[in-house]
Please model this.
Amino acid sequence: MMNYQGKRVVVIGLGITGLSCIAFFLKRNVIPQVMDTRKYPPNLDKLPDNIEYCLGELNRQWLFKATLIVLSPGISLYHPLLIMAANLGIEIVGDIELFLREVTKPIIAITGTNGKSTVTKLVGEFVKGAGLRVGIGGNIGIPVLTLLDFDYQLYVLEISSFQLETIYTLHAAAATVLNISDEHVNRYPYGLHQYQKIKLKIYQSASLCIVNALDLLTFPRGKNNCFSRFVYFGVKYSNFYLDYYKKQIFLILHNKILLNCLDLKIVGYHNYLNILAALALVDFLSISHFVYWDVLRKFTGLPHRFELVHFKNGVRWINDSKSTNMASTRAALMSLSFDRGVIHLLLGGDAKSADFNSFKSYVQGDRIFLYCFGKDAKYLAKLRSDHVVITDTMEQALKIISIRACYGDVVLLSPGCSSLDQFENFEVRGERFTNLAKKFG
Model:
């Protein structure tokens, strides 16, 4: 455990993460200074009266006098003032780094462009089913510092690339990068390579590196790689893979059938890979197969992630609002199976300067129609020359689809873009789609 007495601490960000950091220091009798680049941040009314704060900008004087800066993940580490502070030797960490310095129990760490929350939730359910007290947090919505108030035997952490930027002492019992695709390129000056390098930090000092054998970008790099600690999933020479027989898919664990995927409540190839990753992550715990069976047969996944929200007149309406990049949308399309009908695919939002050229081949043919809405609708509509509708809003697109959709069709919201141009977050976008599906369907 670290002693922060005498430290001049600055906390940047007044979201739930920032609040948890403030509470962490107050419990240790350290009063931090607080700043937020927003003029009207949330939670300002929750600050104790004795805490100084600065709003609308980063306070240069406070930063350069600090001995420790705690950065919320929404603030870029590449802000010019933060770069200057780092060059002056001022330590910059995030909330997860503070957490890591306090705990001694094993940690399972999960990152990746897509599927992080689903795998984190499933791993947590496996560990609970085994009878262990497990703390689940991080990017999944529960600030990790709040987990310190409880006596857990093991922690499962979902970690974003933004959080990995300010982590330095992670020694996970098992860690994985589920997949890597072109995401957050507007945050990283050097693009995909820089994003990949940050993701791969999760493997450093991990006892087990759980590697997606189907995605070469997830393989550890450099002299300090962990080849002797590799555990693969996704291909037949690994201990965790999918097998196919008479159009059925089976989960294979250590060369034995664990389950027929028809017995699962969640569907989709990408979700089956998520299950394999979760099984590989907890394998070192020697959990009973009976626990796996029980958990997997009950597991329904998470909202807004390839979720069947309405079925009427032979038309399936699927909410995949969590899809904020084209890799996720591609995974959703590849997971669909049907003998008749067409896919009405809703794309839209803020594309964040992503390159969609590699995605073009997935949305061609007569069995897929595109409905593009929001900020980058016209840009997205260039993915094909026909079967494209451009609207301002998702609701306008759904009104058109409701007239066109026939028996056997699939209406898929898998936008491939950020929701922030028109919605507060992807959850609000997904809820709106669900309500409209039930209204128009």
In short: The chain has 13 helices and 20 strands. The longest strand covers residues 240-245.
